[in-house]
Amino acid sequence: MRALLLCLALLAAAPLQAQDAPRVPDVPLVADLSNHLVAITTGFTGTNVLLFGATNGPGDIAVVVRGPTKDEIVRRKGRFGPIWANAAAVRFHDVPSYYRVASSRPLEEFAPQMLLSSRQIGVDTVRMINVDESLPAEEMTAFRKALVRLKTGNNLYDQGISDITMMSNRLFRTELHFPANVPTGTYMVEVYLFREGQITSAEIVPLIISKIGIGAEIYDFAHGRFAFFYGLLSVLLAAGAGWAASAVFRRV
Known about the structure:
By secondary structure, the protein is of the alpha+beta class. The protein has two domains: 25-211, Immunoglobulin-like (Sandwich); 213-252. The protein has helices spanning 2-20, 113-119, 137-153, 214-223, 227-251, and strands at residues 29-33, 37-40, 47-55, 60-66, 69-80, 83-96, 99-103, 129-130, 157-160, 165-167, 171-178, 185-195, 198-211. It is flat, with a radius of gyration of 28 Å.
């Protein structure tokens, strides 16, 4: 009889405990990467990193991957008599070395252009600061397009339409491709959730791309404090190889 009364008391207290327990907040957006480190070795030919996540309801997803920024120089060739040579050059500051966009739908279908420009979502919205402000706007636009065209040709810039797979209006995934010539450094993977033309939620996931192994040691030796000695050693090796080849052919 006492055991029966104890069971009834526990059943009666269960709903009260459930009501008193704190509720888990409803997070609009959660995203992560399958790998937070891309290791570049001597045999590196490029790789894909899976980005996956979930939302608390329907919406559109846009993903922006930005690489480390650096200065870029764009040169335009001109004809001087019978030869072609560099006629003009423009330097841009703080240009992303890598830039990739993926979205569940074309960006203009779910977001206003002003919002996309403010967040630099889309290849055409990437800010490129020009040092020489004396050039006309038309020429600056031409140089900018040339830089984007060169980056795209090297597989460093890309804007993928409908590259994000949506499942049940909640789960999503996409493959982020990094080519063999991808620059090293810290990358920022920005994930945006759009609803009714506005950004409802956003999340930033870091990604590190680094050289490892003997290739990294040679790279550090060539570009670090010993760059002068690396260049001198290369010259000596080239001269030695040339002398050895000439000696062999002289004997033959």
